[in-house]
């Protein structure tokens, strides 16, 4: 694999390490289950990307045969045409010309549909996988949403509506950092699907996922900066994995 290409196996291994880190430090947290789901998706990404890269031979043979039949049919039709015994009137010529143009357009549309069928099948599978990664990114965001740096200050009283989270400043920093790492890896898994599949629709979907994960990570790092400023960088800075 070229040095400039993403290695799905390495990405999956990194996600597995992150999952073990989350499970070790926060065994009861729902974030660990999200990480486990991301591991499964990352493992499947290699198989899916390899399937997308391979030609669908059966489909190509069938499509090629249909296109040949269409071409033969057009050839037979064209060869059977005979010039009329009498000259065409202008109105008749226009009608025949319009009918011929319509037939050519319909045949061209049919050929284009057949020729792009394989790409559309692969695109559908890639978009389905990318959609799942987009959903995972939103779930990660939901987990970090209620993790407020104000907790470490202990100011005021709780409302009692939700169960208070008992996290130290260090644990909160690790939790938020895990969320940021998970979002970054989600974007990398999405990129695996299009590095050997040059489809503009799939590429746009991956770019949207990467923009989403970058934006969500930015919110997390804003919280981390607030946490560091509240507690002091030396005490709140993550010091372990």
Gist?
The protein is mainly alpha-helical. The protein has eight helices and no strands. Helix 5 (117-145) packs parallel to helix 7 and helix 6 runs antiparallel to helix 7 (200-231).
Characterise the protein shown here.
With 241 residues, the protein is an all-alpha fold. It has 2 domains: 8-54 and 126-152 and 163-236, Glutathione S-transferase Yfyf (Class Pi), Chain A, domain 2, CATH 1.20.1050; 57-79 and 90-117. The protein contains 8 helices and no strands. The protein has helices spanning 8-25, 30-53, 57-80, 90-115, 117-145, 169-192, 200-231, 233-236. It is elongated, with a radius of gyration of 29 Å. The two termini are 30 Å apart. The relative contact order is 0.13. Residues 233-237 have low confidence and may be disordered.
């Amino acid at each position: 694999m070229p040095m400039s290409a993403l290695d799905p196996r390495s990405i999956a291994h990194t996600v597995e390490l992150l999952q073990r880190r989350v499970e070790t430090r926060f065994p009861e947290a729902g974030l660990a289950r999200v990480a486990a789901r991301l591991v499964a998706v990352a493992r499947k990404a290699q198989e899916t990307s390899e399937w997308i890269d391979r030609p669908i031979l059966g489909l190509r043979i069938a499509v090629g045969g249909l296109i040949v039949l269409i071409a033969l049919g057009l050839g037979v039709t064209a060869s059977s045409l005979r010039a009329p015994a009498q000259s065409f009137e202008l109105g008749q010529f226009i009608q025949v010309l319009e009918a011929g143009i319509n037939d050519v357009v319909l045949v061209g549309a049919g050929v284009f549909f057949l020729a792009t069928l394989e790409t559309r099948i692969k695109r559908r599978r890639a978009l389905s996988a990318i959609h799942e990664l987009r959903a995972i990114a939103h779930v990660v965001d939901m987990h970090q949403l209620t993790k407020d740096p104000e907790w470490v200050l202990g100011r005021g009283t709780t409302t009692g509506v939700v169960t208070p989270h008992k996290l130290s400043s260090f644990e909160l920093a690790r939790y938020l950092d895990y969320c940021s790492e998970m979002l970054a890896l989600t974007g990398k898994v999405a990129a695996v699907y299009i590095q050997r599949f040059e489809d503009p629709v799939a590429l746009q979907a991956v770019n949207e996922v990467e923009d989403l994960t970058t934006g969500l990570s930015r919110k997390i790092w804003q919280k981390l900066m607030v946490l560091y400023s509240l507690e002091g960088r030396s005490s709140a800075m993550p010091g372990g994995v």
